[in-house]
Amino acid sequence: MPFDIETEFNKLSDKLGAKFAEYETQLKDTGSVATGIKGDLQKMAEDYQQLKGEVTGVKDTLTGIQQKGVKLELDPPRKSIGQQVTGAAAFKAFHEGSTAKARIEVKNTILGESGSPQVPNDTIAPYQAVPGIVPGAFRALRVVEAMPRGQASGAILHWTRESAWTNNAAGTRQGAAKPESVLTFEAFNTPIPTIAHFIKASRQILDDAPQLESYIDTRLRHGVMQKVDSLIIAGSGTYPELGGLAAAGNHTDLTVVSAHNDFDAANQAKEDILTADYIPDLFIVNPADWGRMERTKTGLSGDKRYLAAGDSAISYIAGTMQPLLWGIPVVMSNNCTAGKFYCLARDAVMFWEREGVMVEMFAQDEDNVQKNLLTIRAEMRGAFTVFQQPAVIEGSWPDAA
Fold first, then answer.
1. Which residue has the higher pLDDT, 134 or 115?
2. In a domain, 79, yes or no
3. 281: CATH
4. What is the rounded distance in angstroms from the CA atom of residue 204 to the CA atom of residue 292?
5. Could you tell me which residues come within 8 angstroms of residue 333 by beta carbon, excluding any fewer than 6 positions away?
6. How far apart are CA 255 and CA 257, in angstroms?
7. Where is 10: in which H helix or E strand?
8. Contact of 225 with 195, CB cutoff 8 Å
9. pLDDT (tens digit, 9 = 90+) per residue, 285-337?
10. Are 248 and 306 in contact (CB under 8 A)?
11. Is the residue at 209 inside a domain?
């Protein structure tokens, strides 16, 4: 228990009063006072005067401090948890019946949360580290995987295609001149560009987090192929960009019929390729457009069935793993512009690979040595060709608006 100078002063004052009363009684009864009582009384009187001076000095000091606006609480009494609970205003309200529940915060309780609002920030309980890195979204590379692949051996692809064919074959009489057919060709040169990107990382972070190097490798590789996937559809063909399905000369536009809906347009594209003597075997569709088509209902009065159900233009094989539109496989890709679609014969296109995706790490690059950085680069070389324009149809969905 802490020393209280004023309490001690009061105790000494009481003792001094008692000793003085004893002194007076002895003097009255015997006419004299014992030497021991005289000595005790004198010693207590001296202690009393000294302590009185100390109490007065302490009080003067406290008064001066409080006059300066400083609030002092010298060793306030500690309350038990029970006293804190029963003394809380919320408990009193609950006890009086003015509230159905009470939330009481007990002071001086060790918590693992602090702040306003409270957040976990316990410095005693250890953190649990979840191994690895939670990956971001990896766009599905469905288009490039659906394309036929060829191996390129140089920096430029030189290829020749038939540009015109007139078949004049006919029955001929003996001795008569045979009819001559017409066949012409045209040559094309397609350069093979490099698709690349890089990222920088400190040598320390790669040493301290070994899983990061593997994650960066995966992300950079995927980034290259994601770009290739998008260029196969939308590449302009202006070097160093691949020429995709949307590039001029690589497709035939679908003839729009005002009365057609989405399913009619898809069927018309299929028919156009068949009419050009190719076999359509792939649709490329944006997921938003495909979802709209799947949600289309019959439109008949009182009939809420979806057109995609049962025998319809939309069907599925392998459960729902592979959707079909008019019996042709559908590849859904976010790289396809919403509102547009492609129908094509796959044997009329080719993705050429000169070099597969390579990831390399370099210490000697710019100021890497000074900053202890590493440059991590991923690149590949490839090209895309459309051999026959009539075998690729680009259309717009009538119901997209």
1. 134
2. no
3. 3.30.2400.10
4. 49
5. 140, 142, 143, 229, 233, 284, 285, 286, 287
6. 7
7. helix 5-30
8. no
9. 999 999 999 988 877 767 777 877 666 788 888 777 789 999 999 999 999 99
10. no
11. yes
pLDDT of residue 84: 61
Residue-wise pLDDT for 15-65, tens only, equals: 656 665 665 666 566 656 566 665 665 666 666 666 666 666 656 665 665
Distance CA 56, CA 150 (A): 103
* Amino acid identity at 285: V
Span 309-319, pLDDT tens digits: 666 788 888 77
Enclosing H/E stretch for 89: helix 89-96
Cα–Cα nearest to 260, from 74, 400, 116, 384: 400
Q: Is residue 267 part of a domain?
A: yes
| Exposure string for 288-326, b = 16+ CB within 10 A, e = fewer | ebbeebeebeeeeeeeeeebbeeeebbeeeeeeeebebb
Give the CA distances from residue 245 to residues 152, 172, 237, 371, in Å, rounded to whole numbers and listed in that order.
Answer: 20, 43, 10, 44
Q: Which pair of tokens denotes residue 73?
A: 């609480």
- Give the H or E element holding residue 353: strand 349-362
CB 101 within 8 A of CB 94: yes
Give the whole-angstrom CA distance, residue 17 versus residue 6.
17
Show the domain range for 276.
142-157+192-298+306-396
Which of 350, 347, 351 has its CA nearest to residue 281? 347
Amino acid identity, position 360: E
Identify the pLDDT of residue 75. Answer: 47
pTM: 0.68
Count CB atoms within 10 A of the CB of residue 380.
Answer: 19
**For residue 178, what are its two tokens?**
């045979």
Domain membership flag for residue 118: no
Q: Look at residue 103 in the predicted model and tell me its pLDDT.
A: 62
Task: Summarize pLDDT for 86-121 with one digit per residue, the tens.
Answer: 666 766 665 566 665 556 565 556 666 777 787 777
Cα dist from 77 to 1, 73, 80, 181, whole Å: 10, 10, 10, 114
The CA-atom distances, in angstroms, between 368 and each of 307, 361, 365 are 60, 12, 5
Burial of 353 (0-12, 13-18, 19+ CB in 10 A): middle
Number of domains observed in the structure of the chain: 1
